[in-house]
Design goal:
796 residues, mainly beta, 28-stranded antiparallel β-sheet, globular
Amino acid sequence: MYGYSFAQTKNVVIRGKVITENNASPNLATVILLAAADSSILKSTTCDNTGAFAFTAVEPGNYLVLGSKIGYSQSLAGPYAIKDADVLNVAITLTLSYPQLKEVSVTAKKPYIEVKPGRVVLNVQSSIIAEGNSAFDILRQAPGVHIDNQGNVSIIGRQNALITIDGRPTNLTAENLAGFLQGMQSGSIQQIELITSPSAKYDAAGAGIINIVSKKGTNTGTNGTFTAGAGYGTFYKSNAGLVFNSRTDKVNIYGTYSYSGGETFHSIITDRLINYNGIASDYSTDYYATQEKYTHNYRFGTDYFISANNTLGFLIYGSVDDNNFVKSNNLKIANNGVPDSTITANSKLTRDLSNINYDINYNGVLDKSGKTLSADVLYNDIERHSTEYITNNFYTAAGNIYRPALLQQNLSPSVIHNWVVKIDYVDPMSKTSKLEAGIKYSWAKSNNDLIFGPLVNGQYQSDPNFSNTFIYTENINSGYVSYTNNFGKWNLVAGLRADQTNANGNSLTLMQDVNKSYLDVFPHLQLTYQYNDKNDLTFSFSRGIERPLYSDINPFLYYVDLYDYRSGNPNLLPEYSNNVELTHSYNKTLVTTLYAHITTNFYGFNDFEQNDATKVNITTKKNFGTFAAYGLKFSAPVQFTNWWGASFAADAAYERTQAYAINGNLNKGTQDIQLSTIQSFTISNTISAELSGKYDSPSFYGTTQLKSYYRVDASLSKQLFDKRASLKLNLNDLFNTWRDRAYSNYQNLDLHLIDKAETRFVKLNFTYRFGQTSIKSVKHQNANEEEQKRAAAAGN
């Protein structure tokens, strides 16, 4: 059973009977257990023919009990304060519903940012900054999250985090993942979890997990949310979406659809200095591309309630992307300060991507003690088609053509198939302890082609130096056990996960066949001490693994220009991370964390291999050395007045990169400071505003010195139609300051880089909520929290 809390199950029973006003049968009336503190939904069940219901294995606390049935008004009972081993009897009477009667409303607004041991939770529905934005924009503004202009997302250092949707991985490379997240609108998201210390039940992710929890309702009847928006920066933007949920006594049908369309730009300026045989050469590149992209994200599912304790679910979800690029790459070459020549590479690229997932899942409560069994079968199919035609022109310093144009074809289709089977079991062993265990089988196959070559006599030829077929298969067999116990003021979570990996990378054209087989164990420990009602201290340790993306091990040479290529490394090994955190929480709001994060076999950055004689630079990945980050994180909400509130977050780290001897003598440390804030203003009962800011200090990562950057965003929201609708104006990156500026001077490489994507734009978004809205939506608690990590479309 999917869960986000380490709280313990107690021998508490809440039972009762539902009675109808006209003595009609209460059969299949729904009863929902709510937390009294914030009205969040904890459990639900249906009544039998006599109206009887029961909730077993309930944790001590304060609760509300809500009864409902089609044709009747909802009835709310409580709150009830329940202690250990209590048995509570509740009587609920349902009265006939008439059109003029208003429904019972149970609502509570959570803070946008909740900081907990090992994770930060973003309650997306609580923020107008998030409203109307995409998941990509929300993450880019989130505290502790770093997204570069290549689409890489990180929450620990700058290494890629595992991105999951409802616990399932997206299975996309950085660029394609960015497009997917840009197409996912906030209206379809309940919350986002930034998990830096995942337990053993999660996939062993070395650089943390970002889990996006989809929005879904559980109340009887039909409800949903419609959104539409338009914006403009350098180019136009548009989006639309629908979230719906329809539930009867036996079936729940839910789904989301979102569309994102528009145009954007990406600019990269590089300056590469080369000293060879007494000649100082300057290879300066100005790359500019426009991308017209259209993304459709969808998620449709149904839950069939076999009985009060058994649910069978089916889910289909995925995305369809259509992208059109227009690229312009100008390379200027100078020797000893004297202009030599210019080479231009202009191209048009068409790329489409289809990512579809089929999931069948089962959740069941086995007995009155609360034992649960869940199972999942998932099939994922990804297909990518990419067609590019390049025209290279050659000019002297005076602007005269010195050789005929070179026309090239670049075709790179890929197909990925992935199967996952997963079973989880939970046993509440006693009033204070719980045992969880599970097994998982995953299998993936990636088939990638690269057909690259020049136009000769009117026909495109395949160049054997650049064309290749690469087939990669991977099987991961996993198992875990996790034990939780609460004794006095102490809470313990201890677990162990084991992964056995078998992988084969076969480059048919290059005749390279690389096999890998290895077994790893990943312990996890979390110990919490509650000193008093307001202070608790948590220590956690976890070990994780970061397996290479398929594109990182694919030995293709990807063409950028005649002197710049990208290549995978078939010998690349996984990197391993050890993470330690010590967190103090005051009043569940002011949170301070000391942490240490150490990675071996470190490859989480672009490494450059330059041939001084040919002037060719190849960007690749390799197991470079060790990366360590030691830091302090702080988060606090502040309520200045009844109309002005704020949240502040800071992350100050000392980071050190040390190369293995084979990669040189680099051993360098530097600071990395991230500051962020969100200021919230209540202007009137229906008008509110938010202002957010984010700053990242200069730092050093891999072999590259990074300059500082910052951004400021603002939003203004007006509620309409009795607060069922809202109109929001959003201003992104007000001062157009968000860009990557870097410098690398290591061994024979001397490279300056400025990377800028379109980030400043204004957007107007309309949201309308329809249907029954008396009970807030909750996440769908499916069995498989995490599916296979990092299957990726080959090449970007």
